[in-house]
Amino acid sequence: MTIHMQHQPFPDDLTRYSEYACLDLITPEEMRRIDHNAQSLGISGLELMESAGTALSLVAQEYHAGIVLILCGSGNNGGDGLVAARHMSREAEVTVLWYDSGHQTRSTRRQLERLSHCDVRSIRFRCREDLLHHLDIFSKADLIVDALLGTGGAGTVREPLKTCIDLANQSQAPVLCADLPSPGIIPDRICAFHRPKVKDSEVYDIGIPILAEIGTGPGDLLLMQERKQNVHKGVGGEILVIGGGPYQGAPWLSGLAALRAGADIVRIVTPHYLPEPDLIHIPTSGDTITQNDLDTIIPLCDRSDVVLCGPGLGPDAHEVILTCSEHVKKGVFDADSLRTPLPHAHESLYTPHTGEFTRITGRDPGLTPYDRAHAVRNSDIPGTVLLKGPVDVISDTKRIRFNQTGTPAMTTGGTGDVLAGVCAALMVHLSAFDAACIGAYATGCAGEMITNTHGYGMTARDLIPAIPQVLFRRTLEGE
Ligand SMILES: NC(=O)C1=CN([C@@H]2O[C@H](COP(=O)(O)OP(=O)(O)OC[C@H]3O[C@@H](n4cnc5c(N)ncnc54)[C@H](OP(=O)(O)O)[C@@H]3O)[C@@H](O)[C@H]2O)[C@@H](O)CC1
Ligand SMILES: Nc1ncnc2c1ncn2[C@@H]1O[C@H](COP(=O)(O)OP(=O)(O)O)[C@@H](O)[C@H]1O
Ligand SMILES: [K+]
After folding, report:
1. Which helix or strand (DSSP H or E) is residue 282 part of?
2. Where does (6S)-NADPHX bind (predicted)?
């Protein structure tokens, strides 16, 4: 799996950013994102696994058990157990029961090879019957380590792991769980890595940089869902862009960007027609958008998955936007729609740059990402905010995320319109927060790609074909 390496260091002292890290329970998807980002920051999956297995072995040794049975699945959770076995071989009589599903992860296969050079007894099981030959091991064990399933477990537990879990529960030995309890196992203690996934976990650090968590990275792209084969037209979503008037190009840039970010149908309500065959133009009655256009616009808001308001709109249409936003399920409010009173939809994403943020909150957000994050978190904006800048700050009042991708060449006009269009398309299937994080990350990566070829000669339009290369690279390379 080629991991896109992040290069530039964070332009601020990270020691005071720990307040922005999330300390309560995290989901397996969030842990996968952080894990992947850690690898893009130069810490390999094997190193993470070594740290996890070491922590696990230290907790296991607190039991002072003479006979230890380590149950290992075929995934990376199993890998943790194999690492722990290697670290405990001198401390106890260790037996590993490992499940050979036929497709062990590469890291876990590597750990099994390493273990073969240790004085540890390792027994393969492939089916329920294999386990029934080793009932004595379960009854003799003083400690059982559960490294069967971790954050990769999905659905009801399949055999032979189900039987393995039942046998562990039936034994007298306490069960120490790696990262989280395999479904149905009764834990004595839970040794969670980096962050707790379930309640009552003890949390052990495994050396994951804070930036892997509070920063965007290639791990964020894992949230993009693969499309099933039998999908129908429109699954990519229908987007409505309301904009234009004084600036006729902006809504078209947003519309094209939304298509390139995966939207299926994009309609542009704007006074000026531009010959873009991929976009559906909805003309307005005059050369700016007024109340007379509401009969046209409102039904389109009702039928669209996401509505993007603002690109190139000019200051006079705010009343229209306020009225439309009441018919909007998911709204992205950019540029001239960022005026008070703020429009808001059922779920809203606001994408101000510094000037627009100051205009809607009356407060200058400051220059450092730290201050800008404080300003965003303390603003009473009712939704997710993407405050754009050299480091974008994304917040949904609970979470904060920093996006470092992008280049100064992106200050060219219209890049904000492209970013807003990308966020609108992503919001069809993702939350406003995840759409903003991925939108900022992808648009910035596209900007870096184009800066490499066009330098300061980059135009916002150049960004658009680069967007799908970033967003869909994973599936293109079959990772
Ligand atoms: N770099 C890292 O990633 C790091 C990860 N770390 C550790 O890895 C853990 C995540 O590993 P994981 O074993 O939980 O998941 P993953 O490796 O995807 O394999 C899943 C396996 O389970 C199986 N399976 C799934 N559902 C099932 C079911 N219902 N019933 C039965 N089987 C089921 C699935 O089988 P398959 O679907 O392939 O047939 C596949 O074999 C994480 O919690 C942490 O402990 C740490 O070392 C830190 C570094
Ligand atoms: N100096 C910079 N370094 C990196 N990225 C930048 C820089 N300036 C702007 N950007 C990026 O350009 C994008 C659009 O910026 P914005 O100010 O919204 O442009 P516009 O004036 O078109 O709205 C944002 O994603 C932002 O991250
Ligand atoms: K486990």
Report:
1. strand 280-282
2. 250, 312, 353, 417
